[in-house]
Amino acid sequence: MLIFAGFAVVILSVFGGFALSGGHLGPLFQPTEVLMILGGGVGAFIAANNGKALKATLKTCSTLKHTASYDRALYMDLMGLLYQLLNKIRREGMLGVEADIENPQDSSLFQEYPKLLKDPLIINFITDYLRMMVSGSMEPMELDELMLHEIEGYEHEMHVTSDALAKLGDGMPAFGIVAAVMGVVKALSAADAGPDEMGIMIAHALVGTFLGILIGYGFINPVAGRIERQVSEALKVLQCVRVVLLASLHGYAPQIAVEFGRKALYTAERPSFIELEQHVKGSKAQVAE
């Protein structure tokens, strides 16, 4: 994963550069300093957040692990799935997809897209709103409002985690200073220590400041930023599904509806009109068979 590659670059650059400049890595190994910094940070994190925020932080990795593979291929699969669902609705009526959306894992239509089936966020969003469309009791405007509320709620929930981690990262240098001050106090309290020993103790103390800054800005804040990017990817998928379903509700043909979804994507992952058309034609051929 890129995040681990980034961490490796940070470690090699910082410690490798220090070693190449003639420094010795041994004095940087200060377990007690790390204990004070990390322990203080974890304690502050627990004190600053409620139970919901702590649980959200713990489960964020499992919730957002799928977003790392949100690429053009997945979006093409998403368009193909939505096209097949809408085309089936157009041919057989809303009740034609009822069996598919009630048990997507057993649906031959959904099984054509195994990557999507492994992502509960996408599958649940699609099936939930198709069920409401099948019921026929909601106007397009009402359904749109409900989708916007759900997407907004998901965004808020996921941003709790990134915001909490970003604040923790910003606070780590302060805990590094605390550890350094404690080390200086220890050094100055040793009145019988010689100049050489005193210098070593103060050097060890200053390692706390270094570690606090490195842990905060080299590791924790990048994780918070990565979560922000992943949340953005997940929200874009939901927005894509939203505009496709709304276009269908307003009477557009399935091929035009998925074009609405294509336009909602970021340019980096957005397939061209020709690519999407060819992909949809492939899906159309599968439906005919």
The level of helicity is over 70%
| Overall pLDDT level | 86
- Unreliable stretches (pLDDT < 50, length at least 5) are none
Structural class: mainly alpha
Order of helices and strands: HHHHHHHHHHHH
Shape summary:
elongated
Question: What is the helix tally?
Answer: 12
The domain tally reads 1
Radius of gyration (CA) equals 27 Å
Distance between the termini: 39 Å
Strand content: under 5%
Main beta sheet strand tally, sense and closure: none
- Total E-strand runs: 0
Q: TL;DR?
A:
With 289 residues, this protein is mainly α.
Characterization of this structure:
The chain is an all-alpha fold. The chain has one domain (32-288). The chain contains twelve helices and no strands. It has helices at residues 2-20, 31-48, 51-64, 72-92, 98-102, 108-111, 114-117, 120-135, 140-189, 195-249, 254-263, 273-288. The chain is elongated and about 90 Å long. The two termini are 39 Å apart. The relative contact order is 0.14. The model has no long low-confidence stretch (mean pLDDT 86).
Quickly list its features:
0% strand, 12 helices, single chain, mainly alpha
Topology diagram in text:
Layout: H1 2-20, H2 31-48, H3 51-64, H4 72-92, H5 98-102, H6 108-111, H7 114-117, H8 120-135, H9 140-189, H10 195-249, H11 254-263, H12 273-288
Helix pairs in contact: 2-9, 3-9, 4-10, 4-11, 4-12, 8-10, 9-10, 10-11
